[in-house]
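ARCHIVE RECORD
Type: protein–small molecule complex
Small molecule: protoporphyrin IX containing FE
Source of inputs: curated submission
Record status: active
Notes field left blank by submitter.
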Amino acid sequence: MEKVIEAYTGASSEGKKSRVPAKLDKALTISGVILAIFMMAHMFFVSTILFGEETMYAVTKMFELDFIFDGGLPIIVSVFVGIITAIFIVHAILGIRKFPTSYKTYLKIKEHSKMMKHTDTSFWMFQWISGLIMMFGATIHLYIMFTQPQNIGPYSSAHRVVSENMWLLYMVLLICVELHGSIGLYRAAMKWGWFDGNNPKATRAKMLKAKKILSFFFLALGFITLFAYIKIGIERADQLPMKYHPINSVEIIKK
Ligand code: HEM
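STRUCTURE (tokenized, with ligand):
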């Protein structure tokens, strides 16, 4: 049983390294770290709405490179979404390897995790459940961002969140992505021994604390941000989907 647990979770009671091919494990970590960094940057970008509609609009236009192309080019956002989606798919495929292949294996690992009170095994279980949810949920979001990059902005985003009911998907995704990201970074740091000092036990405790702070910060920021979009979306719910216009505050009705 120890070997099954080790092969799936990469964690063993003796702290041995996983036996699965090291190259694939490294690729999983690298793609995961890129996505985690992206998600932090993404959260800061989305949360610019807290500084006002004009600020969020300016940041959106900056991503469309409006300082080079007059008025900005939304297709640049599509290209960027395409790159992130490719990394997301690679990461998911590498992660699937860690899923239990049968219900029987799952039950055995679950039992083992309960018996051992093994935090890392429980974390691993959370990782693949949240990963599975994101494989479906994030794909919907990425598809919309890819096909409608022109509809990103303070009003268009708020409209999507409220009137197109994306708030529900975002709530689920927010919980999954923030916890999955911080647990992933913690597990990668432990597995590859990034911060191993003279006292690995003390390092582990410190890493767990850092993980909790990270989760709390991004979850809090995420929910406050989501409520800001919901507020704008509710206030404007009786109007047609509109685009924010910074110069004369005229709302341009979309086709
Ligand atoms: C390049 C790719 C991405 C772009 C351009 C993007 C863009 C956006 C934008 C503009 C919003 C604001 C709401 C809206 O307009 O609908 C948003 C919200 C959100 N996105 Fe993304 N996103 C990307 C990738 C992802 C990924 C990969 C995930 C998760 C796996 C994700 C999770 C979320 C969540 C949870 C929210 C709601 C956050 C909140 O309001 O607190 N996004 N995204």
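CURATOR ANNOTATION: The chain has one domain: 2-243.
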